[in-house]
Amino acid sequence: MALISRVLSGDLPRNRILTALLIAIVAGLAFAPFIFPGAKALNVAAKICIFIVLVASFDLLLGYTGIVSFAHTMFFGIGAYGVAIALTRLGPSWAAVAAGIAAALALSLLLSLLIGLFSLRVKAIFYAMITLAVASAFQTFASQLSEITGGEDGLSFKVPGMLTPGFSFAEQPFLGVSLDGKLISYYLLFAVTVALFLVMLRIVNSPFGRVLQAIRENDFRAEALGYRTVVYRTLSNVLSAGFATLAGALLALWLRYNGPDTSLSFEIMIDILLIVVIGGMGTMYGAVVGATLFIIAQNYLQDVMKLASDAAAGVPLLPDLVHPDRWLLWLGILFILSVYRFPTGIVGKLRASQ
Amino acid sequence: MSTSAATAPAADALPAVALDRLPLALLPALALVALPLVGSFSTWVTLTVAGLAMGLIIFIIASGLTLVFGLMDVLNFGHGVFIALGAYLAVSVLGAMTGWTGSESLFLNLLAVLPAMLVAMAVAGGVGFAFERVIIRPVYGQHLKQIMITMGGMIVGEELIKVVWGAQTIPLPLPAAFRGALLLGDAAVEKYRLIAVVIGLIVFAAMYWVLSRTKVGLLIRAGVQDREMVESLGYRIRKLFVGVFVAGSALAGLGGVMWGLYQQNVTPQMGAQVNVLIFIVIIIGGLGSVGGCFIGALLVGLLANYTGFLAPKVALFSNILLMVLILLWRPQGIYPVAKR
Amino acid sequence: MKEPLLRLEGVHTHIGAYHILHGVDLEVARGELTVLLGRNGAGKTTTLRSIMGLWRAEPGRVWFDGDDIAARATPEIAQRGIAYVPENMGIFADLTVRENMILAARGARRAEDIDAKRLDWIFGLFPAVKKFWQHPAGLLSGGQKQMLAVARAIVEPRKLLLIDEPSKGLAPAIIQNMIAAFRQLKQTDTTILLVEQNFNFARQLGDQVAVMDDGRIIHAGAMAELAADDGLQQRLLGLSLAAHQ
Lengths: 354, 340, 245
Known about the structure:
Chain A is mainly α. Chain A has a single domain, classed as Orthogonal Bundle (ABC transporter involved in vitamin B12 uptake, BtuC), CATH 1.10.3470.
């Protein structure tokens, strides 16, 4: 028990339903290749892992430091493009992966530092607008530098030998699952996700994390108490960008492809925002629960909506309202309701209902 | 006879009231810098008119947003929804009037476009009223929630537009007499751009008149500086705010019609796309300042057209660069509002 | 005895976690100038803001001309005939002096709508207002702004004037002008509640006085009485007029 507490940096779920949920999610992800056969299911599981890291890094910024930034997908994209470009240019090797990640992290560090120092002195609204503009420009930029980034079409590339689907390290399948590169890729993803999440948990539960929360509550007071809020905010910005970059690298390694829509699109930014609010801001676990629910819904709920839409054919407007392409509509409504009624999200609600 | 005049303060003469005209000079400055770069004078004229037209349309859209922010500290990240709504309504209204839009008569064309604009303004204003009540009112004073909720409002709005009109790009052709170009010497100036400039200037003039010559305008200008004091003087600033919000939404709808005709098509994402431009403009201009918004919009419009011609790849970037430069010069924007 | 125009009954005001007013009981008699004295942080400004509805008085009652206005909205309170001159004067710096005055005259659309006789009287009290009529108010000096702020409060007849530290930061010569103007104002039978730290200034104008400390009224009575009693001054204000002469 004490060991679990230490691993989780003292930030226990504190609610039985939540604990059960989390255990189910972790177990589900850990054994996904065996429990949920098929390529689609594995893809969903991989995406959940990546989004857990991505959204948790956003929660660090929004939930714990109280900063709204629309540039998060930019760092996600930098990570993805870093790996993609490196593997395309330098060939499929682990050295290339390392080089790509290093370069991406360096760029993210620089950009987040610049954005942070430049606009963290100004009001939150200013900052939000500026990040929106910068992210938008970056997206256009990336799709225009076709020689480097592959433009609109993006980059397809090979990954290091061990991760390719062709690679297999045992002849016989184990429990019905063939032991190939895809499996290794998945478990690499899963392991890194768990590691990164635990690191972030440690950060938000450290003295640094507590100062961030103090700043979020009342930055005047924090400043008066002697904390240089600009420094802390900038650091939070940089850390958050760094983790998002790593999530992007993971995405590229999994998909073996990256394009402007895969990682830089505004839709992804919206998705992140939705997940963090619905899951629960400032909890970290909200990212886990939220990402899981969201991505499962995104992939399977749309099938349900298709059934409903077909059934409602003939009625004016109704088939269009429940058309699977319009699932963002319902998500948006849920999002608005969450901000009003459930500002603490699912995790907060669960914890409050002891 | 009061004796106080004898003991009046030493600072009797006021310093000369120097109106801050420097930012205004930026406009001709930019235009003049672009001239040698563009090379040909006639091309430069075409680009400049296009830039002014675009700038004025952006001004129409952005002015409401900046006033709403100055007045009540509310930033509507969903402002783009009214733009898209206006544009799509234009598609529907003009689509129903092809008889008049097909005609070569300028008069009949205007007669068709006018109802499109009025419908767009009325509906956008109505939606704005609902938007303020349902989405914004509950989160007054909470900036973080405002940002998120208005963003949510835009997502929902965009999806609803897709429900009603479909998700594809729909063409919005110019009425017959608006098409083509006039020849001013060597320069080809598109007719629609000129019309847009005229309409834009009319809207600007009307806004200027309201703000400087009416009591409502006075209240708005005062409210932007010191909301509390205006309330202490006995005015219900809440009502004023709703009015400004609705007017701003209606103007965005009008701007949407004009933008749609400018691009000659409409997409559901156009709201989000124009949003970014508008934010850049109001930051450049100074949040709450209509004059600043005017200059900012024209600068952005001109710059977009000049860079679109000279170096298309850096067009969006150039706007951000402009914003950074202006903020380095004046961190609060061109005309910061003097808050109490 | 006439019913006081304004009466605060057990008013408590909280701002966030801070409990500023601890049960204020205050009476402002009709047609008189009541001074609210007290040192920094005593709660004087909070009292005015609570009357004006800018901060919530809860619990407690604020009786104005027979009605309890404690829970009403600020614009409504102002419309009942209360004018407020805040500590920071509340001048709209980007608007001209003329525009500031039009705003304050609720019934007016343009300058011509303001009662000409009244305006002339104001020009007489505060010549700076006339002199800089067309200029942006932000360009006025501190003393001139103060005069404009008071001029705004009286551009239309009001039942009650709430004025917060009008003499703060002003040069002695200007303070004399201010006193002369207020003396003329008093002759119009307006009820005034004046917050002040400057006892000398207050003594020359006040009919009644209330002293505040730590969010409570610790003394209320006639000004003349307090002005004559050195010992009382020492106890309440920590100073005496004699020492400041």
